[in-house]
Amino acid sequence: MVANNNIEVFSTITWSAGAGCHGGCGQKLIIQDGKLIKVEGDEKSPWNQGRSCPRVLALKQYVYHPDRITKPLKRVGKRGEGKFEPITWDEAFDICETKLKNIRDQHGAESVIFAQGTGRDVGGPISFLAYNYGSPNWCQLGLSGQSCYTPRLGAMKATTGEFMVLDASQFSEKRYEDPEWEVPKVIVVWGQNPPPTCPDGFYGHWIVDCMKRGSEIISIDPRYTWMSTRAKYHLQLRPGTDGALALGMLNVIIEEELFDKTFVEKWTFGFEELKERVKDYTPKKVSEITWVPQNLIKDAARLYATQKPAAIQWGVPIDMCPQGTTVAQAISQLWAITGNVDIPGGNVIARPAFGVTTYPYTTEELVGLYGQELVDKLNKKRIGCDTYPMVKQFRGWAQPDMAIDQINSGVPYPIKGAWIQTANILGGQAARANFHYEALKKLEFVAVVDLFHNPTTMALADIVLPAATFAEKDSFRSWWAPLGVMHKTIQVGECKSDWEINFELARRLSPRKLKYNNVKELFNERLEVANTNFDELVEQGSFKMPEDGPYNPYRRHERGLLRRDGKPGFETASGKIELYSSVYKSWGLDPLPYYDEPPQSPVRTPELFEKYPLIMITGARSHVYFHSEHRMIPWLREKNPQPYVEVHPETAKKYGVYDGEWVFLENDLGKVQRKVRISLRVHPKMIHTLHSWWMPEMKGKEPDLFGVWDYQINQLVPGPQHSDSGFGGGQYKTTLAKISSINGQEGNHG
């Protein structure tokens, strides 16, 4: 902290809420007389090096917005009427305690689902509350197949024992000046559009930094982006065919013997089996599947394989492929067989900074926090464990599609309550939002923690608790580096941090006495492995970089720094990267990667394609929004005022729609409204549209619910639907639809 007269400058890091996303960017909060007056990027942060996104720069408008929820609220009318009255925190906690205890006493703790949004700074507090209450059912309810990050995490854990990311020098405090680091000669940007895309543990500007230093780009994306227009090769594939493309590139590299023979022989298992599998995926066949010309498939594979170091940066569309976990398996085998593993400028191993657990990403982390006995006990009731071994043995999530079905069926046990923490399920992540709406209305008790009213609070909440932004709370982050802390610099109304809220309820609800007296003690216990504490991190500038790990030195697999037994190799059953996965085989899954056609496609469902002849890609990101957040923030809404759909000029002409016109997007699940943006960015057989839209300026009470039924594109996304592993396969990128002019038809677009 730096103080001057009445102005104080605090260094902190971001994690939702406020900026949204989960980047952990270093920021300076400028406070005058207890009020936030300005935000600036912290140039000392090795993560973002002083850069800030529009969402952070608009934080003042977010924090002090007149519609912000600043007191606990109790529903006084029927659900959906939008009638709430302010109550005290003691009253709110008393109600939550009584309702949740009653459900537990009558039906068991497993009858309450603890639901969070994607990438939130709530994974730690919500799992803490769920496990102390006794419920194993913590998940991202509504997100079909848990199709955000988890499929890739699971695939990596099963096949390499580690999660790997592009090395853009982010693990060194010296960054690009670190003498050990090398600039990747080639970067494959697969299914991601950095920098607008949410960081996913990776700051998009790093790729731009590498490009300035000579990295060539291979862009794999169904549409043209800023990145693809600057790429050496752009592979404009049909949505959902990423697995086929990865297998085709593996075919070229293996058939032309471009793989790293030494690395493959010494450090991989199952190469011959993989070689046999990819024989069928010739460039000709893959071209027919993906719509990518054969020569581009060959050229991209050759460039990647022959230029070392090379790296791959991927995004959420991988998780949303029909079989997300096997697609991630196939892509990761590209860096495995080329030896671009654990080397400077390749794909490097990412572990929590200093081994600090803030948000449990693996079963091992859950066991470390809560003990094997409790985790085993809860797994007996966790939704999805009996059906999917990967769900049981990785991460600790309940399976969200099965969870919503169980609310309807009550089998094998009833679901009676939901704790929803900063997750706008109806306006954000839920596939078939109306299906989730009808199910969740059946619950006896719903508590929502959030910052603004949204369709979910209005439609479902019995209690609404006001959450804090990152400027108003103490919290910490270790995903992946540096180790950083948020610390409270201002107070807005009666808002509390997610940790404060959940700690108090855990204290009231836990059958076991909490060993902590306050949240700070919990933080300090988890920070012990980093030889620091919360106050020390605040004092030294809110972040700390590991000096010798968890990423450096490189080539850790050669030094015996990855395996628990201290031997060289990887933390897998064979001690090698498993191209043929023994873990997959034990789970009843195909141990080798394969391609599965999307459930809706010109190939699999030609009759449906004739009726709905456009492949609709949902999930488009915007610089100014994160998921369903920020629609009420003036600066941000001005930049992107309406939900648009990108339409190729040929497509627009064919269906008689024009630029700026409001249209219907429609399929057999319903129709929603969008504003046309004519663009050459998209393929003539595709349309591309923003996700998670609702209108804060519209009426919040039913039937309007802020216009969610008119604008939420996820109503057209089939679900619940997931892959054979239980993870991945949400059809957010491959749904079939048609476009038509409203032309006097009943519409509601303000």
Radius of gyration computed on alpha carbons: 25 Å
**Taking all residues together, what is the mean pLDDT?**
94
- Biggest sheet strand order reads 6-5-18-17-16-7-8
Q: Percent range for helical residues?
A: 25-40%
Distance between the termini: 46 Å
Task: Assign the CATH topology of the largest domain.
Answer: Rossmann fold
User: What's the CATH architecture name of the largest domain?
Assistant: 3-Layer(aba) Sandwich
Whole-number count of domains: 3
The overall strand count is 28
Share of residues in strands: 15-25%
Sum up the overall morphology in one term. Answer: globular
Q: Can you walk me through this structure?
A:
- Helix 3 (89-107) crosses helix 19 (498-509) and helix 5 crosses helix 12.
- Strand 7 (112-116), helix 4 and strand 8 (138-139) form a beta-alpha-beta unit.
- The protein folds into three domains: 73-139 and 359-477 and 493-529, Rossmann fold (3-Layer(aba) Sandwich), CATH 3.40.50.740; 161-352 and 561-586, Dimethylsulfoxide Reductase, domain 2, CATH 3.40.228; 606-741, Barwin-like endoglucanases.
- With 750 residues, it is an alpha/beta fold.
- It is globular and about 70 Å long.
- The strands form seven sheets. Strands 6-5-18-17-16-7-8 form a seven-stranded mixed β-sheet. Strands 23-27-24-26-25-28 form a six-stranded mixed β-barrel.
